[in-house]
Structures are given as C-alpha cells and as structure tokens.
Amino acid sequence: MKYTLRYYVKYIPFVFLVMAFLFSQAMCELALPGYMSDIIDNGIVKGDLSYVKDKGTIMIAVSACSMMCSIAGSLFAALSAARICRNIRSALFSRVVGFSATEMNRFSTASLITRSTNDIQTIQQTTTMLMRMALFAPIMGIGAVYKALNTSVPLSWTIGVALAAIVCVMGIAFFMVLPKFKVLQSKLDRLNLIMKERLEGILVIRAFTTEKQEEIRFDKANIELRDINIFINRAMSFMMPALMFVMNGVSILIVWAGAQLIEAEKLMIGDMLAYLQYAMHVIMSFLFVTAMFIMLPRAIVSAQRIGEVLGTKNSIEDPGDPVRFDDAKQPQKGRVEFRNVDFAYPGAEANTLSDIDFTSEPGKTTAIIGGTGSGKSTMIQLIPRFYDVTDGQVLVDGIDVRDASQEELRSRIGFVPQKGNLFSGTIADNLRYGKEDAELEELEEAVRVAQAEDFIAEKDKGLQEPIAQGGTNVSGGQKQRISIARALVRKPDIYIFDDSFSALDFRTDKALRKALKEYAKGSTVIIVAQRINTILDADRILVLNEGRIVGSGTHRELLGSCEVYQEIARSQLSDEELAAAGAGENESVTAAPAGENEPVAPAGDEERGCGQ
What we know:
The protein has helices at 2-5, 12-44, 49-97, 101-106, 109-151, 156-200, 202-207, 211-263, 269-310, 376-381, 406-411, 427-431, 440-449, 453-457, 476-490, 506-519, 555-561, 563-572, 575-582, and strands at residues 336-343, 353-360, 365-370, 391-396, 399-400, 413-416, 425-426, 466-467, 494-498, 524-528, 540-545, 548-553. By secondary structure, it is an alpha/beta fold.
C-alpha cells in the first residue's frame, strides 16, 4: 500500500478543495428541510402564499448552490483521481521497463497487463468515490443527526432502529463478498494469460486444428470468472433491495410515530416531514460509508498487486559510482572478456554455465555454436547484463559490466535477439529505435548491409511502410533483416547476433555476412548460430556443450580437434565439404585413417576430448 499511497501526497490540496465544496453542498442540503418545514407550518397551514413564494425562492437558490458545489466537488475529485492513477501507471511502466529477466520471470506478462489496466482502473474509481462520497457522507450524516435531534428528540429512536438494520445487512454482504475480490483478480489474470497466449499462437493452433480444445480451455477460465462475478453481483443485488426495504420501513415508522406526536400536539406537521428528510440523509450517509467498505477491499487488493511490482527490488542495479567507459585505457573500443564465469538461474540447483573463459577482440568475429540447451544465448545475455554472473567476471574494455551503468553499457552494444521483435510504426521508426537522430543515408546503408534493400524497395512507401503490431505484415526473414538493420544503424562497439540469421536463406546469409564484415570492421562481432555455414569465416569459434566451452579455434582446427564440433559438422555438411575444409592439413574427420592423425587434447582437457 505504501508504494501507491505516496502518489496521493501531492494531491492533498485538492482533497481539501473537494472537502470545501462538499461541506458547502451538505450545508445547503441540510438547510432545505428547515425551509420546507417553515413553508408548511407558517405558509401553507396559515394560507400565506406570499410567505410560500419568498421561502420557495430561497429554496431554489439554495438548491442551485448545492448543485454547483456538487458539480465542482465531483470535477476536482475525478481530476485528482485520474492524475494520481496516471502517475501510478507511469511509475508502473517505468518499473517494468527496468526489470531484468529475473523479475520478468516472476510476473507473467498477462498479470502485468492486468495490474497496469484493470487494477489501476479499480483504484481510480475507488479514489473518485472516496473523495466524493467518503468525505461527503460523514459531513452530511453528522449534520443530519444534529438537525434531526433539534427537530424532534422523541423520534430519535427511529434512526437507531434504521442504523441497526443497515449494519446487519451490510455486515452480511461484507463478509460474503470481501474474500472474493482477490480471487476475482487472479481469475482475470488467468483469462488474460490464456487470451494472450492463444492470440500469439493462433497459427500453431490452426496448424494442429486444436481450436475446439482451446475454446474449451478459454471457456473454462471464462466460466470461472463469470461465476465469481455472478456471486459478487448477486450479493450486491440482494443488498440494495434490502436497504431500500429498510429505508421505506423507517419512513413508515417515522410517519406512524410522528402522527402520534402530532395528535398529542407535541410535534408540528412540517417538523415531522423535516425530520423524515433528516433521517433519510442519515441513512443515506451511512449507506455511502458502508458501500465504500464494500468497494475498498477490492481497491486494496489492486493496490497491493501494484505495490508488489513497484516494491520489487531489481536484481540488477547500477553501482553508486559507475565507471565510465570513456575512462577505460584501451587502444580499441569493444573488447569483451569472460574470466572464469559461472552462472546459475535463480533457484536453480546446478550451473547453466561453468568456467567460461575467452576474449573477443575488436575487428574480430567470435562465433558460438553448440547443441540446444548448451547455454549459448545465456552466455551472450551476460554481456549487456540481462543477467549477472554467479561467479567470475564479464569485462567490456577492461571494465566489469557490474561496475558500469546499464545505460552506458548497452549504448555500446547492438543486440539482435533470437526473435526479431518489431514495434508498430513505420520501418524507419523501427530502424531509428536505437538511434533517434539517424539520417536517411544511415538507414539506407544499414538496410543495404542487412540485405533488406530489395524487399523494402518493393513496398509502396519504402521506409515509410507501416509495420503492424508485432510485425505481422512481414515474413520471418524480413523481420530478422529489419532487426539486424536496427542494430547496424546504431554503429556500436560490439555487435551481438543471437541466432539472428536462422530465418535467412543461405545466399542471403552469405551476402549479409560479407557486407557485415566490411561494415563492422573495427567492432567486436559475436555471433550465436545453429548453422555451421553461418560461422565458417569466423576468426574464432567457441563450441559449447552442457554449459562448458569444449572447443575453441577456427572451423578447420575444430574439425580436427573437437568431437562435439565434428558431430555438428557431420550433421550439416556433406563429405565433400568436410574434406574441402580439411584439405592440406590432414584434418578431415572423414579422410583420416584409423589410428593416424588423432587429435591430442591439451593438458586439462582429457575429459572433454577437444582442444582449446
């Protein structure tokens, strides 16, 4: 709660302003029954029509004043609530954007969307009601009790009976509905998660003709949410008629008791009618307060859910006094070094990466290859600090990445993830994502290097062609090439390609790598790949197996020294390609006679069976 309440402090002056309007409204409304009583007893009963006219004019003016105060109070309450929730929403978004992968794994995307929309909307509605009703009801209730007692003390027991009945009704509803609000939000999270996953995977669903199963799964979550809503609405629908029954019963009770007092000449007709209105004000005020106690628990649940996000401490934070890369004493920028790095995901029992040790130099291309689940993507995600190492160091330009600010570190990196994510807007907007002030010539050059020039030229609007949400109007290969061009526009010191060429055909792949070599000369290039053809020309290839580097060298060297690499090569290359790669060095794994030219592992690598 404390994480959301802090956003209310700034608007305390608005609360006092709303209170002033509500106080004025209450005073006006409490004055009206007195005028009505006066008109009846001194005007209508005595037949003095001029008196009725004069007092009636005053009542109209007081009613108009009450209306204006009500409008002003509602306006400032709504404005304050909207601005408070705007600030909370902005803070929530900023917090989520700053989350590392660890925090994102803690909260599901669907839950974060629900918290930033439905939960905040609940808080906004409740805030408006609190400022409007919770402040107005006590003023009106206390004032109405005072006026009622001044009008007729003998009738005061009727108000006590009414309040006792209302407490019973509201108490039953309160204890029935309160536990359901938290369940309601969790069911809404579940429904949003199913909807999001099914919309994103609609092609897979159609390909496997599982529409009926998915409809059943969605209907199950939808029915669960419906049942909770029905339960809450039934409880509320029971409450309102019960409360109206109490109010009408109290009205009859007041008229019956008042008639006896009038007959005994202890009460005048006008005073009885005024007392009846004061009693209704007391009852309505109490209804407003108790209704807020019904709404408040749901808002508290929403505030707690938002507070969970706002109060989550980032596992990756900038140091208090970050080291600047401009101060690094390196002749060339972009040197990446892993020193005995171990890494384990939070909560995992075993390391995902162990004893990772290598250096990528500027102007060189380092490739990383290995089987599925070997830790390739995890390893490169340590460079921009998407995760922090468990042990060891990752250094850029000789600076431990944990000692630098995340913003400055990532500004030196052009990262292309496995899945090319595009944003709604134009192609040019997506290309400028990493460099807002990029000139048209820079965009065109990046597009040419990324081999995206031809298909962009075919678009009616070229670089101004709109991109649909999620990039659904471009193919997988086109999406990858735009993502690559987006990183190239930045012209960073370090390029990281996380299996970013997988959707490209071999001809485009080869042309892109050739153009990239010239474009990115002087920069460090790190490529994660599944295809050997993508990394044939790399200056150095690292072979990962079960989170360890089991081979290091060029393509030809690894064919003769690394069993894991040989297995990958045999699965992807023909015998002719393997023989050609080893020609002149007697390193072809297919041509070496048994027992001859067997690779000898360096000391310490006997168990790996690979040279480094």
